[in-house]
Structures are given as C-alpha cells and as structure tokens.
Structure prediction request, 198 residues.
Amino acid sequence: MKLTYTTINTANTGKYAAAMYVKLSDRHERTRSQLELTKPIRERLQRIGGIAVTNVGTMNPVSNAKLLVLSLQGSDLAELEKVSEEAQARLRKIPGPVDLDSSLKPAKPTIAVEMRRELASDLGISLAQVGAALRPLLAGEDTGTGADRTTRDYDVRVRLSPADRAAAAADLDRIMLTSSQLQADGTPRMVPLRRSPR
Prediction:
C-alpha cells in the first residue's frame, strides 16, 4: 500500500459517512491482487462496531458509484422501501454480490408537540422551556469530550436509548416542568407536560 486518502462528512459521502481511497503498491510488489485483498479488508471492517460497510473494491471512476446499480423508482416511499428490502433479500441469496446498500434510508422517528400557548402561559410555562426539557432526551445534548485509550478525543452526546426514544411519546405525561409561578410556601409550582383534552 502506497497511500490512503479519507473523506468524512462531505457533500460526496453525506453526513455520518466516510470514504477511503487506498493506492496499492504496484502489482509486481505484492503477492495478492486487488480482488483478493477485498475479502480480508471487508472482514476487518465488519468487526468494527457502529459502522456499515457499503463498498469495498473498485468504484466507477466517472460517477464514483458502484459497478452495479439497480434503480427502483416510484412516488410511494412506503412501497419503495418494501420493494427495496425485497430486492436486497433476493440479491443476498445470489452467490457473489457484496456490500449491498440502498440510497433509501429509513425515516427518523419524530415527535410533534403542539403547545396550547395561552394555557401554558397561564401555567407559567414557556415554549423554550418545553424545548429545553425534551431536547436532551430525544435529540441529545452535547456534554463535552471524552478520550479513549489512544487519548483520541470524541464528542460526547447524552440522550435516551433507542428503545426509550421510541416509547417517548407515551411517557410525555410523566415529564414535570418547573413553572415560573410559586406555590403558597414559596416553592416553584410543578406542571406536568401532558396531553390535555381540547
């Protein structure tokens, strides 16, 4: 191997994606061909937790795309997702194809909270306060940096686990917000963030 070149989170790779170009030594200087090297490289990459390998091998030098691309088109995203999964399942049964991937990514789950602003104002709760309470739980909150054994720094973001985020909508009733209003004893009034009937 002569050199490597890596791009991370660029317009070409997309967010949370990376591409690495490896220039191999001249063929007479190595014992294995490029094709023979792809299998051990792929196996090593698949041992790394948290990444999905989408291509190991030669890319189309003109379009920077995979050598074989199957295009499925339609206006119904749900149907496209279903057909895409079926196509990938069939392709996996054929000996030879590797690094199967789809450009159609699953939609991120979202929770819409509609505030009754007049009622919230009467209770001493602001829109910013609701956002501040929900953001760390769902989107996550940056808490600083951490280092691993190689002393390499990583951004640390704290949020609920995927299972808890999926169930978050049902748990909103249990979140208590601190009102700007005070109770008779001088302590802040606590208001539940619950779905009230209209």
About this structure: The chain has a mean pLDDT of 78.
